[in-house]
């Protein structure tokens, strides 16, 4: 029984010794006397039940120790990974938390609550530093990209900092490459941004004029209003004095360009119709000049081409009223939507179209007056022919022959006098023309009676009169 008791006491002592040792490690005691003689065993209760309780307690402590060791290893691995990304020395960071955590020390790791808390604080601090550096590199990357785009930096120069701009779409958790967030990279990026800022300041005028030219090209292409020259001179003065923020100025220019592009896009359909209208106006002017050419039907080189062009021009001109009406409707809709006047080279487009419609109407009225005037002149010639008593049968044959052989070029002095009288009649009003006709009839009757007294003169006078009539009325069918 004594031997069994001594053996049971040793079992209790061994289990309690392990419990005390692990408890000391968990408590963070760096120095612990694990001599078995220091373990006190209550010999009054050496039952198997009590021993089993101690063994369960020991197993629980073992499990807790393993969990704490795993937490410590996880923290150390995280510190090592973050330190590699940030370009720091992980062993120094771990040693700073506690020397036992460094494997080179050769002692058991401290797994106390305080050490776990310090490790957690260290990890959180490294994560914050990582996030802070990444945000700064994001800012530097955006600045680099804007400056590159602003100054048209070639790809070769951009490639040197591609590792910085490549981090723009990446979150903090996704950054794990060694050395990707080191202080050296941040310093290089800052130096490059500073250098480009100084270069941008020296090239500010050039950049401004480049943006200004882009804006003017958009406005000129769409015939929109261009910013005034005094305003541009004022901006140049502010650039020279340094009283204007370069980034704000370029941002303002970009906004103006964006608005100009948007307005040019809204004007596109109207501008296409305006171009068609202007081309049609050119054809209309050409057709008017061509219609006034007395030699347009003459046999000459290129006459057939002009005839074909005239046919095409008439087709285009006939479509002008519909085109102008469509332009007016679309322009009015555009002005109602935009609450502004549609300007074409600083002139309201609607005013241009209305003025064109008025001038076109005036031209049509003038053409109508000319046609009526020709009718009056033709009637005067017919009345003049009747005044001389020309015979319908013979005069028709003579008219056709005279009109074929020539006009005023072969007329006698009498013909010229008649043509002069007719021309004078055409320049007067219709009423005055009728009065002159009656006066001429009376005068010609008296003169004709005297002339008819001479033999052979009457037939000659009929021939001359027929020549005059043929000039105005054109050829008559036999």
From TrEMBL:
UniProt xrefs under InterPro entries: MAP65_Ase1_PRC1
Amino acid composition bias (Polar residues), ranges on this chain: 392-410
One Gene Ontology cellular component annotation held by this UniProt entry: microtubule
An example molecular function term from Gene Ontology annotations: microtubule binding
One of the protein's GO biological processes: microtubule cytoskeleton organization
Subcellular location: Cytoplasm, Cytoskeleton; Nucleus
UniProt keyword terms in alphabetical order: Coiled coil, Cytoplasm, Cytoskeleton, Microtubule, Nucleus, Phosphoprotein
Coiled-coil region list: 44-71
Pfam family, one: MAP65_ASE1
Matching Gene3D superfamilies: 1.20.58.1520
Annotated region described as Disordered, given as residue ranges: 361-410
Keyword Transit peptide: no
UniProt family annotation: Belongs to the MAP65/ASE1 family.
Protein name, entry field: 65-kDa microtubule-associated protein 8
Taxonomic source organism: Manihot esculenta
Lineage, uppermost ranks: Eukaryota, Viridiplantae, Streptophyta, Embryophyta, Tracheophyta
């Amino acid at each position: 029984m004594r031997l069994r008791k001594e053996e049971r006491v040793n079992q209790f002592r061994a289990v309690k010794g392990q419990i005390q040792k692990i408890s000391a490690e968990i408590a963070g005691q760096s120095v612990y006397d694990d001599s078995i003689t220091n373990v006190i065993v209550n010999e009054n209760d050496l039952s198997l039940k009590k021993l089993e309780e101690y063994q369960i307690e020991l197993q629980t402590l073992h499990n807790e120790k393993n969990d704490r060791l795993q937490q410590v290893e996880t923290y150390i691995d995280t510190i090592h990974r973050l330190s590699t990304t940030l370009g720091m020395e992980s062993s120094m960071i771990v040693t700073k938390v506690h020397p036992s955590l460094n494997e080179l020390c050769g002692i058991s790791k401290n797994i106390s609550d305080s050490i776990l808390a310090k490790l957690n604080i260290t990890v959180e601090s490294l994560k914050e530093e990582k996030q802070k550096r990444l945000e700064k590199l994001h800012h530097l990357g955006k600045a680099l990209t804007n400056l590159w785009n602003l100054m048209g930096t070639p790809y070769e120069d951009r490639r040197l900092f591609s590792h910085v701009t490549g981090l723009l779409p990446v979150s903090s958790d996704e950054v794990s490459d060694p050395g990707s967030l080191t202080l050296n990279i941040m310093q290089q990026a800052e130096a490059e941004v500073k250098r480009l800022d100084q270069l941008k300041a020296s090239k500010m005028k050039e950049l401004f004029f480049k943006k200004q030219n882009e804006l003017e090209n958009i406005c000129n292409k769409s015939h929109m209003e261009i910013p005034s020259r005094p305003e541009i001179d004022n901006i140049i003065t502010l650039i020279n004095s340094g009283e204007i923020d370069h980034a704000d100025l370029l941002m303002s220019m970009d906004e103006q360009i964006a608005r100009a592009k948007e307005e040019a896009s809204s004007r596109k359909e109207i501008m296409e119709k305006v171009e068609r209208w202007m081309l049609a106006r050119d054809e209309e002017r050409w057709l008017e000049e061509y219609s006034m050419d007395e030699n347009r039907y003459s046999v000459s080189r290129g006459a057939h081409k002009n005839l074909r062009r005239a046919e095409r021009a008439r087709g285009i001109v006939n479509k002008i009223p519909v085109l102008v009406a469509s332009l007016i409707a679309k322009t009015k809709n555009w002005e109602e939507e935009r609450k502004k006047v549609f300007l074409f080279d600083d002139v309201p487009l609607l005013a241009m179209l209305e003025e064109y419609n008025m001038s076109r109407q005036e031209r049509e009225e003038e053409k109508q007056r000319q046609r009526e005037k020709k009718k009056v002149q033709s009637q005067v010639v017919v009345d003049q022919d009747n005044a001389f008593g020309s015979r319908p049968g013979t005069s028709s044959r003579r008219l056709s022959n005279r009109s074929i052989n020539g006009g005023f070029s072969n007329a006698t002095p009498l013909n010229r006098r008649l043509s002069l009288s007719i021309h004078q009649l055409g320049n007067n009003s219709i009423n005055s023309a009728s009065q002159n006709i009656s006066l001429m009839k009376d005068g010609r009757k008296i003169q004709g009676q005297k002339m008819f007294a001479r033999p052979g003169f009457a037939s000659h006078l009929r021939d001359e009169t027929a020549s005059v009539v043929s000039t105005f009325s054109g050829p008559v069918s036999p």
